[in-house]
Amino acid sequence: MNLTDIINGLALGIVQGISEWLPISSKTQIMITSIYILHLTFNQAYALGLFLEIGTVLAAIVYFRREVFGILKALVLRGSAYDYMMLKYVVIITVLTGLVGVPLYLTVADSIKGVGIGLPMIVLGLILIGDAVLIHISRLRYAPRKKLSELRTWELVLIGVVQGIAALPGISRSGVTVSAMLLLGLNPEDSFRLSFISLIPAAIGASIVPVLFTKHLFHSLVTNVSAGTMFTSVVVAMLISLVLIDVLLRFARSKHIALLTTTLGILAVVSGILSLITGFG
User: Fold this and answer.
1) Which of 22, 71, 177, 236 is deepest in the core (most CB within 10 A)?
2) Mean pLDDT of 125-141
3) SS3 sequence of the chain
4) pTM of the entire structure?
5) What does the pLDDT read at residue 23?
6) Angle at alpha carbon of residue 68, lines to 57 and 160, rounded to 5°
7) Mean pLDDT highest for which of 30-34, 140-144, 179-183?
8) Residue ranges of domains in the chain
9) How far apart (Å, rounded) are the C-alpha atoms in residues 273 and 281?
10) How confident is the model at residue 66 (pLDDT cuts 50, 70, 90)?
11) What is the pLDDT confidence band of residue 9, given thresholds at 50, 70 and 90?
């Protein structure tokens, strides 16, 4: 591992660790970064963006280890009522994510350059800003928002479909899932928490799919990106993710959640506009 590998890995890890949890599409940011610093093709950069989710999923497993352990206990019929509820939620969301996401990935994997990025980000940003307004209004009226246990099956199906759509470049997984849950009336903390936990199986699948279904892209990626760069980027993404998950959940519990959601919405809009300006949209 040489200094260049470490520098490239740091850059990619920082971008992945930050963008995965914000509504700015980590795949898009990794594509842009890796195309410029590693000179990858669009297809290779897209595959790299999926692979680097290993770092963020490891962070989610570590941070939500109690929930993960509870879900595993529920699988062997030894969990609490909360564990069984979370198992049901994760299974439904993951199945729908796979049914929607895998076909979308296979459709765009070899023709990624033709997929627009900017407009979806702008729309997502406006939705998040609308979510912030709804949260603020509900708090002014002291209207209680839905608890996690009150989600219905059709709402879980919808969340899974939305998460599957995030297989497309330009669509932020955390952004669309959190937005969907807030629009469904779920309280902010549970929206962020369920979104982050749902990432775990989705990201594991996203890392495996390129290896199973588009081996030519994966082999090309391994040939063009050093093991040192990939290892460094995964470790850095994991460390940054641990910090950012905690920060976002703390904000979600606070009275400043509407401000946070507005800020995330503005970030998404700006990211979309920049994508259009730079030619990635």
Assistant:
1) 177
2) 70
3) CCHHHHHHHHHHHHHHHHHCCCCCCHHHHHHHHHHHHCCCCHHHHHHHHHHCHHHHHHHHHHHCHHHHHHHHHHHCCCCCHHHHHHHHHHHHHHHHHHHHHHHHHHHHCCCHHHCCCHHHHHHHHHHHHHHHHHHHHHHHCCCCCECHHHCCHHHHHHHHHHHHHCCCCCCCHHHHHHHHHHHCCECHHHHHHHHHHHHHHHHHHHHHHHHHHCHHHHHHHHHHCCHHHHHHHHHHHHHHHHHHHHHHHHHHHCCCHHHHHHHHHHHHHHHHHHHHHHCCC
4) 0.81
5) 72
6) 65
7) 179-183
8) 3-278
9) 8
10) very high
11) very high
**Which of the pair, 118 or 197, is modelled with greater confidence?**
197
What are the tokens at 213? Answer: 């279904």
Report which residue type is found at 108: V
Burial class from Cβ neighbours inside 10 Å (0-12, 13-18, 19+) for residue 94 reads buried
